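Continuing from the previous page of notes. For each protein in this section, the sequence appears first, followed by its structure tokens. Read the first protein now.
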Amino acid sequence: MRTPRHRASTLSWQIAICVTVLSIWQWGYDLHARFPSLVPDLLDPYFVSKPSEIFEHFLILSCLKSKLGVFNGWFNGDFAKCMVRNENNLWVATAITLKNTFFGFVIGVSTGFAAGLLLGRSDRLSDIFQPFITAVNSIPRIALAPIIVLAFGIGDTSKVVTSWIVVVFLIFFNTFEGARSIDEGFVSAARLLGASEWQITRTVVIPSTMAWVFASLSPAISFALIGVIVGEFIGAERGIGRLIIESEARAEASGMMVAVIVLMLVGVALSAVIWRLQAYLLRWQQHNMAE
């Protein structure tokens, strides 16, 4: 069991690691001229910028500061003017990317779960669709992104579809395996008690596959975000991917790093939500998870 002392020690180590990494990142390349063999070229600010420059660019992209270095006031309308002037500011870009990720994730999980459950409980349907599923699954999903953008345009729909197609197979295969691995003794016992097929599915099959489904939700949310970003790379009106492409065109490493760090924070937050949801819905397995 994790004691308060253990948690405090773990937190201290995490803080120390973050401070060390940020310090090396900020000042490490200054020693490159003296120790070229010890300081890698990867720390060159041209490629990864510096934390101080990234934070400065974050303030500019989020309209908290003007490009002249002056903080935008809230009451005098400078912040609002910046938000209107820059239609793809950091707040709007993050909101658009999050919205598309959410819809792609929800639709992908829903359709993948339904298809996996249906084929997992039906040998006949599984035999019929198995070669088609294998063929489609063998295609790298990212390779379909340009076709999706061409078919659905550069609006939000193409990002949702790209996110969906990345997520759906991950959820499908986990649900399929979960449905296949159910102890048939439970199913036979339910039938013996007079349960209908729908009652068996609702009370035996779905609860038994939930652990398999939740095991794939954490990577699925990351894949959903990846699908949206790839779609925004290819063509988008707004979004974090568009911010990265614009910063890359201007050779602004700090702008790209702001977008990357925001994506990292968004991914961590979404994964935390999934873990909380998993802990709540699978609380009957809590003793196993604690072990």
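Done with the first. The second protein uses the same format. Note its length before scrolling.
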Amino acid sequence: MNQKVTEKKVINLSKRIGDKEGMSIQKYPKKNKNDTKVIAITSGKGGVGKTSIVANLGFALSKLGKKVLILDADFGLGNLDVLLGLAPKYNLSHVISGERRIQEIILNGPGNIKILPASSGIQELTQLTKQQKIQVFTKLDTLIDSVDILLIDTAAGISTDVLDFNATAHEIIVVVSPDPTSLTDAYALMKVLSLKYSEKHCKLLVNQAANDQEGREIYRQLNLVAERFLDISIEYLGCVMFDEKVKKSVKRQKIVIELYPETKASKCFEMIAKRMSSMQALKLPDGDSNFCWKHLVQDKFA
């Protein structure tokens, strides 16, 4: 099928779903397409604190005056709502099944951030079909016109779902920790994104670093290998220093930047949020969509 014809069908499908869904329930005026910045925050390895980073950065961006929506894209083991002490009645599994509209599952999080919760313990949602992915992205496309930033909290690893969510974003932030296995898995993630999805750029965020010097050294090591063996450039976004207050806040189901705004980890989040707020996306979608639909058009979805 001709690529332009296929692309037109995808865009038309997005419009039809948007009309049916009734567009966004938020009070903000509708913005132009492509004004929303879509940022995927991902990791090769689990346990690096990625979800905590997403929540804290969302809060910090909100404090900067940004309208932020966070998508928990770990459809099988979503836990963003648990981290924030929320108890959603419905989640994305109900949207995919057609039981609820996407606007009906939005939760209000701390600092005026909005949350789209994922399901937990539903194995079928760990491998979405092509049609289900189209459904999710088209409904999201109509929903996020009124926000400034969509943060996608992907699952960890290199599954097709993880890679597809990364590929549709304008920016990819890879989270690593000082654990050597975290670096190895991050490299594997970047390798697949580069070779199979033609991604050329990503940003690196080091979590639980002893100090900025350690964060920059981790970046140097990973960037050295990537420059030598991969066709992908890595930009150092910053580090979040190890802070016992983070563990305390997690136990209380709060985010550290809200509970302990003066602690060192919170200051790191504020600094990184400022950089994110001002950075220009190196990859933007074509046409009227908020997402990079080329992977759908080229039939790269499973």
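What the second structure shows: The CA atoms of residues 94 and 209 lie 38 Å apart. The chain has one domain: 34-297. We return to this in next week's lecture.
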